[in-house]
């Protein structure tokens, strides 16, 4: 009869009947429909079945009775296979704060399991990132690290990601993350501890470059940690390259020449040759020639001198061409003068020379000689 009343929506009648026969599971469902949430929780406690707890919990969530919902939820989350449905019910309705409070309360339960710690860490990464680090430091051994790693990466929580990589013994990824996100993830002590454990040797040299770029004053501390593991020849070459680059960017000719001398003192002829071109504009050919001759390495310096010679010849050719052009432009064509006796007569105009026909016969203009007349008698 109680079931008939319940199906017909006669909840008050069903309540009396279920209470009379101590059917607490059905009574809890009936009380939920009546909005008597506290009584429903009490009946659920007496029924003590997961199904009843879920029904009452979800009803309390819909009724925004979150305190009562949490009481019910504590009896649900201890079952790993029920946890996902409970989390989805809260999240789908946007009750993230209430869900986090429920899982936080559940951590102290005797039957707390990995799923609870893992899901709470994921919720922290999404909604309360400031609390995730503390949670991981306390319970990292009780979370599903690969699952939390993905959540931390998606949330761009780089420091927490490094912490998890370290605990999961993925040291290479931890170092890469710190170098890619130094502002958030790099810590000096942690970096030096982890770099000594990496499997990929190439990360040693990437770490050196990282320190040169971001923490040059701490490079010696890093070298103390890595020195037993580094290939010393490769390391010296690594720093030689940076030294050449620094000297070239400094625009200091004296520094570049001292670097050349150091390479020769250390017997690094290849570095000497490379430096000639890296610092080409700073070096004096006479200094290079003397160093190469003194150390009997003219073969290493010859490409440099070929380039210098080519450059000088090009400049000389340009100067010759420029000088020839200048001389041609200075040459100006002048009119040819006409000289009569001691008087300079220009050809610039018709009035420059007085016409001889205008002089009387026998008269000679000053400075002029009357030409003789042949075969003509006056």
TrEMBL record:
Domain of life: Eukaryota
Protein name: Clathrin heavy chain like 1
Transmembrane segments: none
Extent of the CHCR repeats: 1-69, 74-220
Record-level GO BP terms: intracellular protein transport; receptor-mediated endocytosis
Recorded GO CC terms: clathrin complex; clathrin-coated endocytic vesicle; extracellular exosome
A GO molecular function held by the record: clathrin light chain binding
PROSITE patterns assigned: CHCR
Xref: InterPro entries: ARM-type_fold, CHCR, Clathrin_H-chain/VPS_repeat, TPR-like_helical_dom_sf
